[in-house]
Amino acid sequence: MGAIFVCQDIEYAINFIVQTYVQKAPHRVFTATNDKNELTVSGDFSIYNARQIIESAYITNDQTQHIIAAAKGYTREAQNALLKVLEETPKSVMIYLIAPRKSVFLPTIRSRLAISFIEKARVVPAPLINFTRLDLKSIYDFVKNSSKIDRDRARVLIEECFSDFCTLKASVTQKSAFLQAVTRGIKLLGTNSAPINAILPILLILLEIKNGGKIRA
Predict the structure, then answer these.
(1) pTM of the model
(2) Which in 33, 45, 51, 178 has the greatest CB count within 10 A?
(3) Cβ(4)–Cβ(49) under 8 Å?
(4) 154-167 confidence digits (pLDDT tens)
(5) What is the longest distance spanned by two Cα atoms in the chain?
(6) Cβ contact 96:66 at 8 Å
């Protein structure tokens, strides 16, 4: 059994697979090295590396073995050598192939393995507004600091507004107004309009819902 994982950050992908799938089980990581254990100049997984994986896959073990291959590229010879072990993988072995692009792999490899994409986790800045204490003053302060908000952060804020909205009891009219504001906001983020123009109407409607239909100072 095996899988392909596509990720721009190879080291991040290795750690992700170990933490998510391998955990404390036996595992080995193979990178693009030569017979002196030196990284290859091209950074491509070679026939030498493929033979290392094949040898490791057929070592008898009572526990499930996890084999991770990670490289920027894989030579045609290496991939052809891996075909047999991927087709007839021992039951106690899992093989993971990591590369920055799906196109790195030959169609014969891609057709035999599930393909997953790993996105490196983004560091989300601290909230710019406290939804649990939303009032006109906090919205005003938020507007004053709106220069700190880029389009990506604005999208996150709209998602946060929607999550907060889902916890509230709103009338049909309020729901409709809020959803329309969200739709307009998302469209505005695709234009040259300032991100605050997309978020402010959503916040005001959210405040109105929280206050039972009235905006209070």
Answers:
(1) 0.55
(2) 45
(3) no
(4) 888 888 888 888 88
(5) 73
(6) yes
Report, as an integer, the average pLDDT of 46-60: 91
**What gap in Å lies between CA 68 and CA 4, rounded to an integer?**
10
Tell me the two tokens of residue 170.
């709103």
Question: Which runs of consecutive H residues, i.e. helices, occur in the chain?
Answer: 10-17, 47-57, 76-87, 107-110, 136-144, 151-165, 172-188, 195-210
Q: Round to whole Å and give the CA distance between 29 and 21.
A: 14
CA distance 215 to 206: 10
Q: Contacts from 18-23 at CB under 8 Å and sequence distance 24+?
A: 18/68, 21/66, 21/94, 21/96, 22/66, 22/68
Distance CA(186)–CA(155), nearest Å, equals: 7
Helical H segments across 98-193, by residue range: 107-110, 136-144, 151-165, 172-188
**pLDDT, tens digit, 9 for 90 and up, residues 108-157:** 999 888 898 988 765 555 566 777 788 888 888 888 877 767 888 888 88
